[in-house]
Design brief:
Structural class: alpha/beta
Number of helices: 12
Strand content: 15-25%
Helix content: 40-55%
Length: 321
């Protein structure tokens, strides 16, 4: 089996990270030539000591490297630190598997990803089927966002959604392997040559949209992205970030989410496209908000979402990336 480096970024989630490592040790390492690097984004909460003690207690030292970092530079920053170190190795691995700390891998999860990516030399990225603890699937294979998809995301009217169905970013979960635009960064296997070709993750995204941006850059360079549902990974949604857990009352979106969204559209499509995106989403969401208000229909959107979206829009923030 080809050599694979598994990278996990910890920020104040030491117990989740420990459980993720344990699942990799149990289900992946017996059937793979793999090593785990855990970076810590200057958690400052005892994470380093906890993880170091866990690695020693469970006898994982041969398989796990703990890499403390000097600051919390975000998700891309934490991954890139390990990716750069890995690529400098005299015998670098053929593949790098990026895993969220709030994941638990199932048996065969890496093997299935490797089986898929090795089927075609032009496949550069493969993502897993993410699922809840009860094995119900999460949407983890996506289309790239567009003006049409953002308008539909804001408006949420069934007839419009059906008309714009082919633009919807998160289509229904597929039960078979498919080529897709991008996959969730919670479990993403990347061919080493992709990093050598297009570079590392963009560290100007603190969190969110970095995997969308990376997959788009890979696509533009000729690499293909696939979704492999036979690779199953439990994703404890929002446990690491506290932002996107749809099973709890929504929290107010942090500024870095809006910054990442704005950066993605300006960087990849230009300022005019970003301005139009904000306009159509705002119109759609305002109409949705009016309908919800008039009908007292409940929803689980973040508090002050419309206000924060306008405040952080391209029109207000301008060209800032």
């Amino acid at each position: 089996m080809p050599k694979t480096e598994i990278i996990i970024v910890n920020f104040r989630t030491p117990r989740l990270t420990r459980d993720c490592i344990a699942s990799v040790i149990e289900y992946v390492l017996p059937e793979a030539d793999a090593h785990i690097t855990v970076t810590d984004n200057d958690s400052g909460d005892g994470s380093i000591e906890y993880l170091r003690n866990s690695i020693e207690y469970f006898g994982w030292s041969e398989h796990v490297t703990l890499m403390p970092l000097s600051r919390n530079g975000g998700f891309a920053f934490g991954n890139n630190a390990a990716i750069e170190m890995t690529l400098r190795d005299p015998r670098p691995p053929e593949y790098l598997w990026l895993l969220n700390p709030d994941t638990v891998v199932r048996e065969g999860s890496l093997k299935r990803l490797l089986d898929r990516i090795q089927q075609n030399e032009h496949i550069g990225i493969v993502g897993s089927r993410l699922e809840n603890l009860d094995a119900t699937p999460q949407r983890s294979a996506f289309r790239f966002p567009s003006i049409a998809s953002e308008f539909d995301l804001g408006l949420r009217i069934g007839v419009i959604s059906r008309l714009l169905n082919r633009y919807v970013v998160a289509p229904p979960v597929a039960d078979h392997a498919i080529e897709t635009g991008w996959v969730a960064g919670a479990s993403m296997l990347v061919r080493r040559e992709v990093f050598e070709d297009i570079g590392l993750l963009d560290e100007d995204y603190f969190m969110y949209y970095e995997e969308v941006d990376f997959c788009l850059a890979a696509k533009r360079a000729g690499w293909r992205c696939w979704y492999e549902p036979a690779s199953r990974v439990v994703h404890l949604v929002g446990q690491a970030s506290g932002v996107t857990d749809n099973r709890r009352s929504a929290k107010r979106r942090p500024k870095y989410w809006f910054d990442s969204r704005r950066r993605y559209f300006i960087k990849n499509h230009g300022w005019l496209y970003a301005a139009v995106i904000d306009l159509v989403w705002t119109i759609g969401y305002f109409l949705f908000w009016l309908r919800s208000f008039a009908s007292t229909k409940s929803h689980n959107d973040p508090p002050y979402f419309l206000r924060d979206s306008i405040r952080n829009s391209f029109v207000i923030r301008g060209f800032s990336l």
